[in-house]
Write a structure and sequence with these properties.
- The chain is built from five helices and two strands.
- A two-stranded antiparallel sheet has the order 1-2.
- With about 120 residues, the protein is mostly helical.
Length: about 120
């Protein structure tokens, strides 16, 4: 995580970042998660904030704890597959709403996407 957004609680931004890491396979199913202190130092946050984020991920079922071994990423492939679909859908919904708020007509959005993809592939 690079910079935090002031409009969203920091713990939630960490949760979202770690969910993205799980969805992208950067944090693999069954992988042990680093300790609270190490993660807090990496995110440059207070360990209590990091602890809150990890607890939230546990409540959501994306992390589980083994009493003396630490926390691990869920091995529930279905749960991860749903996450891999949900994140891009949320991103798409946000993009579409921004375009509509800017005044772009729904039928024009497809043209912008196609032009954007064409420009990305030609670079």
């Amino acid at each position: 995580m690079k910079n935090f957004n002031n409009s969203v609680p920091i713990f939630q931004q960490i949760v979202d970042d770690m969910l993205a890491q799980i969805a992208k396979g950067e944090l693999k199913p069954g992988e042990k998660v680093q300790s609270v202190r190490i993660l807090a130092a990496g995110y440059k946050v207070n360990p209590n904030t990091m602890q809150k984020s990890l607890e939230k991920l546990g409540e959501m079922g994306f992390l589980y704890a083994e009493r003396t071994s630490g926390r691990f990423v869920t091995e529930d492939e279905e749960k991860i597959a749903i996450l891999q679909n949900d994140i891009p859908m949320k991103m798409t919904s946000g993009f579409l709403q921004e375009m509509l708020d800017f005044g772009v007509k729904p039928q024009e959005i497809k043209n912008y996407i196609e032009r954007g993809l064409k420009n990305d592939t030609s670079n």
